[in-house]
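FORM 7B: Structural annotation worksheet

SECTION A. Query
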Amino acid sequence: MLPRTALLTLWLALAPGLATPDLAFVRDENLWLHRFEPAQDLQLTKAGGYGTPSWTPDGKALVFVRNGRNIERFDVDSRQLTTIVAGLGPVEQGVEGCSAAAVHPGGTAIWFSRVRRLRVQGEEVWDNAIWRVGLDGSGLRKILQVQGISPRSETMNALVERIVWSGDARVATIGVQPHHGWGVGRGVYLTCCDVNGVEREAVVPLAYQECNPVVASTPVRRGDVLAWPVTPMDPAERPELFLDLLAPGHRRLRRITQPAEIRDNQEQLVWPDLWLGGKLVAAAWTGREQPTVRIWNYASGELAGEIANADTPLWRPSRG
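SECTION B. Predicted structure
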C-alpha cells in the first residue's frame, strides 16, 4: 500500500494542468514545508517557538508569531529570518502576548491579536484587541477591541484563534475562542470588520442543530468556500469529528467525517486550509499522541494523504 503522501502525489499527477503547491506546517514548534513532487519534508527553522504562520500573498515568505512576543518573517528561498516587531508580550508565555498573525492580501500589513494586562486608575484590566503593523515594522497601532470580554474579569474570557481575509481583501473574519467558560457552551464566535477596523457583524455563534452543543474552531474561507471543523461535545453519543465545507449562506457542500479514536473529547480537527484549484482541504487532527495533517479531496470526500507529526497546515499561494 502506498504511503499517504505518495497517494496524494499520485492523485495530483492524474489531474492535468495543476501545479502542485507546497504545504507549510508546524512540527515541534518549528516551521516545515512539505513538497509533493517528489514527496519530501523540508525543515525551515530549528530554534523553536514558532506558531500561527501566514503566507505573504506572493508565496515567498511566512510571517508568524514567535514565543508570543515577536512577529517575524522567514523567506523560504533565501532562508533569511527578519524580526518585524519585537517585545509584544512578557518573557514568560501565558495569556498575555500576541498570536494569530495574518498578512493582508495586499501584502503590506499584518493583523494580529494582542492581549495585555494594563493598570487603569489603579486597577488591573485586560486589553484584548486586534492590532496592525506594516510588513516593514512601521505603523504599529490598535484597530479593533475584541468583543465578548469582561475587561475587569479575573481571567481572560475570549482568545482570538485566527484571522482570515475575504477574497476581495475588504473584510477580516476573526475567530474568537471563548476562554474559561465564557458564553453558552463552547465554540468559535466570529466577528467581521473592514480594513479600518469598523465592525460589520456582531460576535455570533455558528449553530449546528443536529449536534449541539459542539466545539467548533478556526474556520477559513477561500473564494466562496468556507471550511469549518466541528467536534460534538458528547463523544459517547457522536464519536466523530466533522469538517464542513459550506457555500455562501452556509449551504453545506460536503461533510467530511473523521472517526474519533480516543473518545475523551480531546480530539479535534483544527486549522483547515483550502486549495481550490485541486479541490483539496488540509486540516490538523489533534489530541492524539502526535498531531497529524490529513488532506481530503472535498469534491469526493475521499482521503488523499496525510503528514505525520504536523500541525497548522497552509497551502502556499501561487508564485506565478
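SECTION C. Observations
The first strand starts at residue 23 and ends at 27. The mean pLDDT is 76.

SECTION D. Sign-off
Analyst initials: ____
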